[in-house]
Amino acid sequence: MTTTASSRAHARPESTGTPAIEARGLTKKYGDFSAVRGIDFAVTRGEAFGLLGPNGAGKSTTMRMIAAVASRTTGELRVAGIDPEAEGPRVRARLGVVPQQDNLDEELSVRENIIMYGRYFGLPRRYLVTKVEELLEFAQLTHKARARVEDLSGGMKRRLTIARALVNEPEILLLDEPTTGLDPQARHVLWDRLFRLKEAGTTLVLTTHHMDEAEQLCDRLVVVDEGRIMAEGSPAGLIREHSTREVLELRFGMERNPELAAVLEEQLGDAVGFSHVEVLPDRLLVYAEQADHALEAIYAAGHKPMTSLVRRSSLEDVFLRLTGRSLID
C-alpha cells in the first residue's frame, strides 16, 4: 500500500539550515487594536509546532500571516525562506491549509473536491487521477470516493479537508483547530493521519484548544495570550517549568472550598514539593510533586474531602496558569 505519507518521504525537500517558518518582532494591528504584539518564534523543518491560547489571543491572525492571506504591520516573517507578503503565490504553493471550518463543496463528490482543489494549483489531470486515489486511501475514504460531501460524517469531512490540503504535496501543513467538534474516535483517527505526515517529514503547524492533542502531536509549542508569547518549549518541558509533577483534586463543597484553601496553604506550606492551592468553583487543586503524600497530610490534619483524585500535571494546568481561568470573549 502506498500512502501520501510514504510517497512524500522521498519527495520532501532536503533539510537545510533555513527554518520552515521564522518570525521576528511580528505585529499585526487593526486600527488601534493590536492582535499580535511583537512575537518571535522559529519552526524547524519537519517538526510539529503548536500555537496555544484563548480566543482572541492572536493565533488565527498569526496563521493568516503565515498563509500569505494577511499582511503584517511590522516585523519580519519568512516561510520556507520566502517573505509571504512580497511573494504570496510562491509561499502558498508550498503550503497546505486546513481551516477551522470545513469549506468543502457540498454538491461535489469526495473525489471531485480533491480534483477541483488540485486544479487551483494548475496540477495536470493525469497527475491528479493517481494522486486522488492515493489521498483517498491515506484519508481512509476510498469507499466514499463517489459520495457527496453533504452525506459524510464530521470526521470524514475533516479527513477529506486534510487530504485535499495535501494535493500539492506541501512542505508545511497549517491546521487551525483540526479536531474541533469531533468525537473521540474520529479525533484519534485524525491524529493517526497527522502522525504519518509528521513521520514523512511534513512540517505541521497547528492551533488547538485540546491540551491532550497538543501533548500528543506537538514537538514544541508556544502559549500565546493577548498577542504575546507567554511561554515556549516542549509539552513536557513546559509542565516541568510551570507546574508540579502531580495535582491533587479535592472537593469539600462549594461553600467550604475557599476557607479550606487558606488552611491547606498554611498546613502544607513547609511540605517538600508543595507549590500552592488553587480554588475553583467546585474543587480545590493542590499542586505538589507527590500528591499522595499531600493527601495523607490533609487526612492526618483531620480534613475529610467529599472526593479526592490524584493525577499527573498536564499541559492544561500550564495553559490555565499562564492565561488565567476567566472566560474572555
TrEMBL record:
Residues 1-23 are annotated as: Disordered. It is found in: Cell membrane. InterPro entries: AAA+_ATPase (IPR003593), ABC_transporter-like_ATP-bd (IPR003439), ABC_transporter-like_CS (IPR017871), ABC_transporter_ATP-binding (IPR050763), P-loop_NTPase (IPR027417). GO terms for biological process: response to antibiotic. SUPFAM superfamilies: P-loop containing nucleoside triphosphate hydrolases. Keywords: Antibiotic resistance, ATP-binding, Cell membrane, Membrane, Nucleotide-binding, Translocase, Transport. One of its GO terms (molecular function) is ATP hydrolysis activity. GO terms for cellular component: plasma membrane. The keyword Nucleus does not apply. Belongs to the ABC transporter superfamily. This is Lipooligosaccharide transport system ATP-binding protein. It comes from Bogoriella caseilytica.
